[in-house]
Each structure stands twice: as C-alpha cells, then as structure tokens.
From TrEMBL:
InterPro entries from the UniProt entry: Acyl_CoA_acyltransferase, GNAT_dom
Domain of life where this protein originates: Bacteria
Entry keywords, A to Z: Acyltransferase, Transferase
Transferase found in the keyword field: yes
Presence of the UniProt keyword Acyltransferase in the record: yes
Coiled coil (UniProt feature): none
Example of a GO MF term: acyltransferase activity, transferring groups other than amino-acyl groups
N-acetyltransferase domain sequence ranges: 11-151
Protein name: Acetyltransferase
PROSITE patterns, per the entry: GNAT
Amino acid sequence: MVDIITIEKNDRTPELIEKLLPVWERSVRATHIFLSNEEILQIKNYVPMAFSGVEHLLVAQDEHGAPVGFMGINDHSLEILFIDPEHRGHGLGRKLLEYGIAHYDVQTLAVNEQNPQAHGFYEHMGFKVFKRTELDEQGQPYPLLYMRRED
C-alpha cells in the first residue's frame, strides 16, 4: 500500500531531503544511463534546491512511511517525477501522474530524449511531443522533449 502526501514548502526539512535524495539517485542511476557518475554527483548537489523550489511536492510513501517516489509540479507543469527502482513497474508512476493531473491539472512536462522508457511512459499517459531542444536546461548536450497532454 502506497500513500501520496503533499509536502508544503515550510515542511520540506533537511531530514525530508535526506530521505528523498537517495530515491532520486537510485532512480537516476537506473534510468539515466547516458549520464556519467561524475555528472550524477554534480547534479545531485542541485537536487535539494529543486525539492525546495517546486510549488507542489508530492511524496509516495510505503506502509512504513518511507518515500518510494515523488513528483514536483509548477504551474500545471510536471517538473520532477522519480520512482525508486524497486517500485518501478507496479503502477506507482501512473498513480502519481494521475494524481497530479486530477489535483494540479498537469498539462506539460519535459523529458530527456535519451530516457526512452520515460518518454514512452508519458506518451502512454496521453502526452505528445510539441518541441525538442538540443541542450538541456543547464546547457548540456542532452536533448529535451517537451510534451503536452492531449485529451
């Protein structure tokens, strides 16, 4: 049984960040095979700012209260969605995204082109590519696909 909870900005404590960061890292290592270890460690330094800065942070917790996935939303745009690899393939990503669509009207997102599993998942969930960039948001050579939900 997994519960989804909303973490308000003033409740995003260092202890919470310490629990979410390993989930992020395990997920990235399992899905972002185009990144080197050094790149992952470099990006990891900025992840706590993403947790703090996102308007809506939703965390999926297991029956023991441990985070197993999370999602961040700004202005109807999915900014982050990461699932612990041990919990992938069991509908958790779908559950989080459907929750985001129902409660926060998620309409758009960006996904790394080199992450075909995520791209395929979002297509399966009704999102279609409307724009592509050669560089990611940090100016690195990792193309992004911008996707929009189509009903």
